[in-house]
Design a protein that fits this description.
mainly beta; 13% helix
Amino acid sequence: MKQLLVFIAAAGISLAAVAAPETYVIDSTHTAARFEYSHFGYSTQQNRFDTTAGKIVIDRAAKTGSVDVVIDAKSVNTGYSTFNNHIQGEDFLDTAKFPSITYKSSKLNFVGDKLASVDGNLTIKGVTKPVTLSVTSFQCMPHPMVKKDACGANAVAKIKRTEFNAGKYAPNVGDDVTLTFAIESIKE
């Protein structure tokens, strides 16, 4: 019995040694942060931010890690420059005072070996709220072009813009905002 316990302890130590966090840098050319909301009930407006940066640290064996993302709020892209400026104004993102939107994870949640969701804190316009990102796909593998390991994911969350002091025209312009993220990252 004692030998079995020593074997189990040694196996646990050797498995722990195999588990190692890996750091991935977000590839801004293949990452998109999007948001959509109802516009007076006529249509669902779909917009994006063109500049996203950050790092993802993941230890797939230990099922732990972190996500740290910074979105340049001034890179908002509605497809129309006048509306871009409107969204950047004080009534909405107030990018003169708050040029960045950030997301910092507090926990990565796995189901089996698959990343299922990320709990964290979203900061918009100086207001921080807990937000869980539901991960709809997640894949890590060697990247055929850059010859390094890469990870990619798609995630979605819903927020209320009034909770982030960006509620002008609510409820006529929808308070509910769907955030979607397509992220690709390359191992450091």
